[in-house]
Design a protein that fits this description.
This protein is of the alpha/beta class. It contains eight helices and 17 strands. The termini are far apart.
Length: about 250
Amino acid sequence: MKILILEDEPLVAEQLMGHIRQLAPQATLAGPLASIQEARAWFEKHPEPDLILADVQLSDGISIDLLLALKPASPIIFTTAFDQYAIRAFKVNSIDYLLKPIQYEELHAALAKYRALRQQGGSRLSLEELARFLEGKPGTSRYKENFIIHSGPQAQRIEEREIACFIKRDLIFLQTVDQRLLVTAYRSLDEVEDVVDPARYFRANRQLLLHRRMLTGYKTDLQGKLLLTLKTGIHETPAVSKEKAAAFKRWFEG
């Protein structure tokens, strides 16, 4: 059995692949592939796998869009940080779905369901139904909203409403509104900026990607740089360069 992994968070992918090696030691694993671009290139060069495990939101887009276009015959188990309501709805539509952080027991059940469907000659999963559900679900975004943070064997889900900003130091940190500073698996702020909603986040400078909720206003210094005023402390200098000042004002007032 060949299993293709589509996952843009390295630690999540490592955990998932470790679980699969225990549950299906005979399986051959392909990936992990972190982007739509990588996945498309892979399908052009390889035969379809027996099973696909796909994160809904990859680094450069929604995996469902790619799979709708390619229409692979492979069964698909999706992973996501969407809420439990969404999980229940997708299960009603006969789509296997795992909520992050992925639990060993739930993956075991999903693989058992796959084997049962395979033995029974079960039909393909309805990607069209999934896409229609995503389009019609209030509050569903095509941008990444919730993030999984790993600390050793522990994983925690940070909701969008908890996020204050992302900060670049030696690593990329997520700061919460209650001023917790958490290490992410991202390699650059550019990667984070690519997956978050630009209406909600602004790249203030090379070190800071700021959520709109944190801003109360700004003032201009003598050099034309904007000094931001915030609702709570940020572990980084909240300033916007003179070159980006006009873009920031349009965003802030929009």
